[in-house]
Amino acid sequence: MPSTPVINLRRGHAVRYNGDVCVVTDTELKTPPRMASYVQMSIKSIATGRVHNLRLTSNESLEGVTMEREPHELSYIDQEGYHFMHPETFEDVLVGDDIVKDQKNYLIEGQKYTLVFADDVISAVELPASIVMEVTEAPEGVKGDSANNVYKAATMETGLVVQVPLFINPGEKLSIKTEDGSYLGRA
Hints:
CATH 2.40.50.140, single chain, mainly beta, 1 helix
């Protein structure tokens, strides 16, 4: 794949650096006074997990990597990791804890997710904007304590703790925003 100017790279893009396929985790254009502008970026190797902090001039380039996004369904979770199934080929794709560490609390068996492949290597799991989860634990709401918008902590089926209104009880299904883990409403 042709080289990509570093000024065009964004979070989630894949590049080849020192022979490794890496995902851009952070990028920032800096323009100090009376100096040439440069790009400060962090990239993470998919194979080793090592993070490289780079400082490149804005006219430098890195080799781009082909990225593909495919829908998969989470089949089951075991000690090896997270097993996703392709809906058409029924192929099992194993995703390790290191890739889903930030999304663990949003992964529910039977749900569909988008897997991102960089050079045929799994690089990320993309979550939908919101997900429906069941409340497993929620303390009793105190009657008469509803003068203001009062919230309580409720534990969802994956272990995620969400601030919910007092009237929410265990067993209810709620819509949760995956970006920040906030309550959106009953499902």
